[in-house]
From TrEMBL:
This is DUF4440 domain-containing protein. Gene3D superfamilies: 3.10.450.50. It comes from the Bacteria. SUPFAM superfamilies: NTF2-like.
Length: 101
């Protein structure tokens, strides 16, 4: 279930994360971050895209996220393939997670 634009990726990621597993949004061979502990946390992922820069078939995404009492800013790289946009590099701690409070 890839995205048709890079701007769709963050919301689609949150939707799949909240349902079970967003790993289908990654290119084959790409290494998704370790999400096991977060997927079982019973918290809802919320995302707010801050910036999406696209150059041809490559996009850089900066996305603010919140999961329970944790929040951070992810810095990701996506690539357009024959079936849509998928993550190639995912750095969920681009600016380091922090506690809300």
């Amino acid at each position: 279930m890839p995205a048709t634009t890079p701007e769709e990726l963050p919301a689609l990621f949150a939707k799949l994360f909240n349902q079970s597993d967003p790993s289908s949004l990654y290119e084959p061979g790409a290494r998704p971050p370790e999400l096991t502990g977060h997927l079982t946390a019973n918290a809802t992922m919320h995302v707010t895209p801050r910036k999406v820069l696209t150059n041809g078939d490559i996009a850089l995404l900066v996305v603010d996220w919140r999961l329970g009492d944790e929040r951070g800013t992810a810095v990701d790289v996506a690539r357009r393939g024959p079936d849509g946009w998928r993550y190639v590099i995912d750095n969920p701690s681009g600016t380091g997670p922090s506690r809300v409070g």
